Amino acid sequence: MVKAMTIILLLVMLCGFCQLGESAIGVNWGTISNHRLSPETVVDLLNANKIQKVKLFDTDPECLRALMGSGIEVMVGVSNDQLADIGSSAVASDLWVSQNVSRYMVRGGANIKYIAVGNEPFLSSYSGQYQSYVMPAITNIQQSLAKANLAGIIKLVVPCNADAYEASLPSQGAFRTELTQIMTDLVTFLNSNGSPFIVNIYPFLSLYGNSDFPQDYAFFEGTTHSVTDGPNVYYNAFDGNYDTLASALNKLGFGQMPIVIGEVGWPTDGAISANVNAARVFNQGLINHVLSYKGTPLRPGQPPMDIYLFGLLDEEAKSVLPGSFERHWGIFSFDGQAKYPLNLGNGLLRNAEDVHYLPARWCVADPFKDLSGVEEHYKLACTVADCTTLNYGGSCNGVGERGNISYAFNSYYQVQKQNSQSCEFDGLGMITFVNPSMGQCKFLVGVAEEVVTRRVSHGLRLRWGSVIVWLLVVWWGFL
Question: Is 73 assigned a catalytic role?
Answer without folding.
Answer: no
